Amino acid sequence: MAYPDDLLSDGEQVVTHKHPHFKMLLFPIFVLLATVGVGSWLALLVRDAESPWNSVGLIAIGVVALVLIVWLVLVPFVRWRTTHFIVTTDRVIAREGVIKRTGIDIPMARINSVRFEHGLIDRVFGCGTLVIESASDEPLTFDDIPKVERVHTVIYRQVNDNPYDDYGVAQTEQLPYGQQEPPPRQPPRGRGR
């Protein structure tokens, strides 16, 4: 889902848009499977009870299962789906929440440094924590960012805004200190006919 264009400034473009990594949903998926499994097993046991109690037991199992699924499965899924981490050409945007919506915008010009952290489990899943130090007092931490190294590089390149840095430029083509534009390319020299 693309970030709404009407919330962007004139000339601003989305560079990357991420939701938290899907590992955030592993526990809710486990709870869903366990609730359905245990609920089905209990329903089979209660079905053989006497006449009024089998209906009461099935209703009680259904209500408990519904509460568990809404509280431990649906709510985390909605939280995951409504959490956005966006890098644009002008700023870093973080938004989350449905009823209570929170957000922060960090202009690229105010970012002092950006770093990432990921342990063994994060490396297995391909995610990590992004830490952005800006003009504010404390660094801002964003957890479970998918492909955190790539996002780190994207932010670094947007902050530096240098099209001639080492990304995609051969070592022999790097600019000398103080030179603003690359030298014009010379056509390859061929052998005479």
Automatic annotation (TrEMBL):
Record-linked InterPro entries: YdbS-like_PH
Membrane-spanning ranges: 25-44, 56-78
Tagged with keyword Transmembrane: yes
Pfam families, alphabetized: bPH_2
Coiled-coil positions: none
Region spans: Disordered: 168-193
Keywords: Membrane, Transmembrane, Transmembrane helix
Protein's UniProt keywords contain tRNA processing: no
Domain YdbS-like PH: 80-152
PANTHER family with a match to the protein in the record: BLL0215 PROTEIN
Record-given protein name: PH domain-containing protein
